[in-house]
Design a protein that fits this description.
Elements (H helix, E strand, L loop, with lengths): L1 H33 L3 E4 L2 E4 L4 H12 L38 H10 L14 H12 L4 H4 L16 H13 L3 H4 L38 H10 L15 H14 L5 H9 L35
Antiparallel strand pairs: 1-2
This protein binds heme C (2 copies).
């Protein structure tokens, strides 16, 4: 009886050993396969396997060795570092819910994220950043089964004028941006204190009066992209179904009147004596459609080119 018992234990131990051995092998195999992940940015090809050392040195302290956002510093940070295993990203040129392009991630890594502890990694070489993008991707199988979303088109920026700013303000009211961002954009709308992100963590809307820069870039085109793609993982929605490209520029111009720096838009708003919206007042008579001004030549953003 006793020997039988011992035999059983020995057997069980042997089975366990074999099991854990084979699961270790599978994991190792998958890891090798995932480390074959690439990123393509302009002429650069990033290789995940070449980023392992840099990731451990520069990223793991916040994002964790496993990419789960649970690095040793994460407890001290708000907002929390991204969990790469979920493959949900704020800064995308692609529609809500879809994967960003490699270029989007490359730009984010270079730029860093305003109002968070995510630093700019521009001191690393272009190649090192492309390798890191591949490494970020290797944490989620979504990149093996799904393609990046189709990049949303941004028409050339039209010339700003008073009509466009007024039309933008009417949209800010109609689309209820104020419910979160507040009637003056001070992040104090009626919903502001109730918002949580995907992980059920409290999150604040952006305060237009405090900040000149956005997480996903500082230019007019970046601002356009933010509300046309939404910030996945946060309550900030995509408005691409409700806003036509021309109207989107009106909204961009209006938002620029709220920010603390000197802008042409702010100057026009001052001349107009533009008052903050009043959601309780009867809706203003429909503003005449903004004239379809011929696109002006704008200096093109170079953020999409590897620096
Ligand atoms: C000091 C902490 C810290 C370090 C170090 C750090 N990050 Fe981050 N990272 C963050 C935080 C915090 C966020 C989330 C910010 C937010 O949600 O606004 C983030 C977000 C990101 C995102 C998601 C961007 C998006 O669009 O959602 C990427 C990609 C990223 N980090 C890559 C990296 C890489 C690559 C490294 C190493 C080279 C790195 N991070 C190092 C704190 C850090
Ligand atoms: C349900 C609440 C909600 C509504 C409605 C909303 N936002 Fe947001 N918005 C947020 C939150 C929350 C953030 C901050 C996300 C973060 O920090 O990651 C944000 C961030 C932003 C940002 C800054 C993004 C960045 O990159 O830093 C802009 C610009 C913005 N919103 C514009 C708008 C506009 C324009 C509208 C209306 C068309 C709108 N929002 C409607 C909740 C909302």
């Amino acid at each position: 009886m006793r020997t039988q018992h011992l035999n059983f234990i020995a057997c069980a131990v042997a089975v366990l050993a074999v099991c854990s051995l084979s699961s270790a092998q599978v994991t190792k195999y998958q890891e090798d396969e995932n480390l074959g992940m690439e990123a393509h940015v302009g002429k650069l090809t990033g290789h995940a396997k070449d980023a392992a050392t840099n990731y451990r040195r520069y990223c793991a302290g916040c994002h964790g060795d496993l990419g789960d956002g649970e690095g040793e510093n994460a407890v001290w940070l708000d907002p929390k570092p991204r969990n790469f295993t979920l493959a949900t990203f704020k800064c995308r040129s692609t529609p809500s819910g879809s994967l960003p392009t490699d270029e989007d991630l490359y730009n984010t890594v270079g730029r860093g994220l305003e109002s968070s502890n995510m630093p700019s990694w521009n001191p690393l070489s272009d190649q090192a950043r492309a390798d890191l993008v591949a490494y970020v991707k290797h944490f989620s199988d979504r990149w093996k089964t799904e393609k990046s979303g189709a990049v949303i088109e941004i028409p050339p920026e039209p010339a700003v004028n008073a009509e466009r700013i007024k039309a933008g303000q009417a949209l800010f009211q109609k689309l209820e941006c104020w419910k979160c961002h507040g009637v003056e954009g001070r992040a104090n709308g009626p919903s502001a204190d109730t918002l949580t992100d995907d992980q059920n963590r409290p999150i604040k809307p952006f305060n237009f009066h405090d900040q000149t820069k956005f997480k996903c870039g500082a230019e007019d085109r970046d601002l356009y992209r933010i509300f046309m793609t939404g910030l996945d993982g946060t309550p900030m929605p995509s408005f691409s179904d409700n806003v036509k490209p021309d109207e989107a520029w009106d909204l961009v111009f209006y938002l620029r009147t709220l920010q603390p720096m000197h802008t042409q838009e702010k100057e026009i708003a001052k001349q107009l004596g533009l008052k903050p919206i009043n959601p309780n007042a009867p809706a203003p008579a429909a503003a005449p459609a903004a004239p379809n001004a011929a696109p002006t030549t704008q200096p093109q953003s170079n953020e999409n080119k590897p620096q």
